[in-house]
Amino acid sequence: MASLKTSAEIGAMAEAGRRLAEVLSLLAAEVRPGVATMHFEELGRKLIRERGAEPAFLGYRPHWSERSYPYALCVSLNDTVVHGRPGAYVIREGDLVKLDLGVKYGGWYVDAACTVGAGRITPEAQKLITATKTALERAIEETRPGRTLGDIGWAIEQVARRAGFSVARSLTGHGIGRELHEEPSVLNVGRRGKGEELTPGMVLAIEPMIVAGQGEVKERKDESVATADGSLAAHFEHTVAITKQGPRILTAP
Ligand code: MG
User: Fold this and answer.
1) How many angstroms separate the CA atoms of 129 and 131, rounded?
2) Number of domains into which the chain is organized
3) Binding site per annotation, positions for substrate
4) How many other C-beta atoms are found inside a 10 Å radius of the C-beta of residue 179?
5) 212 SS3 class
6) Tell me: the pLDDT tens digits for 203-236?
7) Which tens digits make up the pLDDT trace of 8-50?
8) Which domain holds residue 82?
9) Would you say residue 170 lies in a domain?
10) 207 Cα–ligand 1 center, Å
């Protein structure tokens, strides 16, 4: 069961989300060849602190892991779908850089991600970015009272398939609020009209992860998740509240 938020609580989450959106867009603007991925971690921590917020991933131990995560940010490159770690790697021309960031502010968690190409990228990489962004937009259109979790997954899967891509298997979005990961899981596949009905007060982190290849993924030793076939992956995420009037994107500037 999803925990429902009042409109005042959704307003408080939007305050957190505005801060996250500002930080994420400042980080995205720094993506270019020659920049080490640790730069985003260092700058991200500073920008989060300046806004009176806390990094949500730093020290967080997800239920699937035995260890807590040592960074504020996930930086995933090329065939890495999610959970890539910032480090000494220096970004090269053509890299697909995924930035995934959670923050906590006023006791509320919010979560968002984006994919940015470094310098000139291939037409296929651009098409993948566009499809994944479109998938998130279409999913958000479904995020309204009377629709279902299946409608969200269906919308994402349709966009991926029509572009000739696949949804990364077994990776999902999630409810969010007082905890970073709450019920329900938000699958990136689904059947129209099936699954839990969406009701006002639900807040979901919707995060299509779309790959150019077949969709199977593997976990690496450092707990990052990559495509099994080495194909490129893209990821976009927003934290979205369901209101009587429709979807409200909380991680927008
Ligand atoms: Mg998330």
Assistant:
1) 6
2) 1
3) 83, 181
4) 13
5) coil
6) 999 999 999 999 999 999 999 999 999 999 999 9
7) 999 999 999 999 999 999 999 999 999 999 999 999 999 999 9
8) 7-249
9) yes
10) 6
